[in-house]
Amino acid sequence: MKFSWPCFMTTEQMYCYIQVGRNTSGSTTTLIVWGKNDYIFPANGAFPYKKDLKNLEFHLLDTGHFALEEDGNEIAQKIRNFLSAQNNLRTRE
Q: Which residues contact 53 (CB under 8 A, 6 or more apart)?
């Protein structure tokens, strides 16, 4: 599994960057955990993903830009649950 973050991009540029690189078959499951009070990547930048990604788990938290520092335990639990669910799906296949 690869995690990456394109640095120094606006939300719109980041969205375009991900659209070019993502799996267009629709089989990739994606987890988005976004801070609704983020002033650097505002919440409105999260919603296009809901429209375009078919297999999406989406969480808009009451945090700012430093979501991990504000709600790290909640985010970690969401990641664990997401990965566990993906592992269970693969096990059944």
A: 22, 28, 30
